[in-house]
């Protein structure tokens, strides 16, 4: 692995955005130890809402010899402040770096809370994520979260990654080595996975979800399946999904199985001449083991449509 300190880019200091006043504090969620010195705060399952105040991902933090590294701090300044409260229950060491797995704002807009403490905090992300934030993706997420939470995320500003990392890069933070894996167009085209070898710990971002489904509009089934395969081959034994419970290798295996079955069934029925609408009942039947996952009914039709277009495009 080559050492990569990244490309230092201009900070985004745009905050608060689309906010009049400030939303209420996010209630505390417990930090659960998943490996030595490593903790995950599991957010509630489902999409951003008034009830969850926009907090529904899995922030993680790693306590090193002289500081703390936070991965995917959440969706708002309020979420980030809640994460900071949980860190303080574990250690008094400073937060020395942030890592953002991908461009979807429910994972990184909470950077704001840590930039309030240290405006120059190193914040890592994929170059394509940085580019998309420059192009307005952060503004879109600010507006979306404001609408879905009815203003609970108000007061949140845009603080994008300022250090670029790519597939195969490795950085040492707080005395701990972090390795970055990237698969072209998985859940999106911005997705990093973060492997911490000394802890056999993998943060998967939204390349894997557990007991919950999300959108696939920005990604591909083929790329997502390949990214999961890469993560499972890393040697990790503990896997943190972007949403849902942390666990062993069964966590990525289950989500990969869902993606693979759906794509294979869509390809089979497309070859038989069925439209996405016509094949839906048959595909849903093949996915019966996943029917109780949160948002299965809301997302499976969209997933079939995305896979249909993907497989169809490969025919030409």
UniProtKB/TrEMBL annotation:
UniProt cross-references to InterPro entries, sorted A to Z: Metallo-B-lactamas (IPR001279), NDM-1-like (IPR050855), RibonucZ/Hydroxyglut_hydro (IPR036866)
Query: Can you tell which superkingdom this protein's organism belongs to?
Result: Bacteria
Per UniProt, residues of the Metallo-beta-lactamase domain are 56-243
One of this protein's GO BP terms?
Answer: antibiotic catabolic process
Which Pfam family is an annotated match for this chain, by its short name? Lactamase_B
Q: Which Gene3D superfamilies match?
A: Ribonuclease Z/Hydroxyacylglutathione hydrolase-like
The entry assigns this protein to a family as follows: Belongs to the metallo-beta-lactamase superfamily. Class-B beta-lactamase family.
Protein name per Swiss-Prot or TrEMBL: Beta-lactamase domain protein
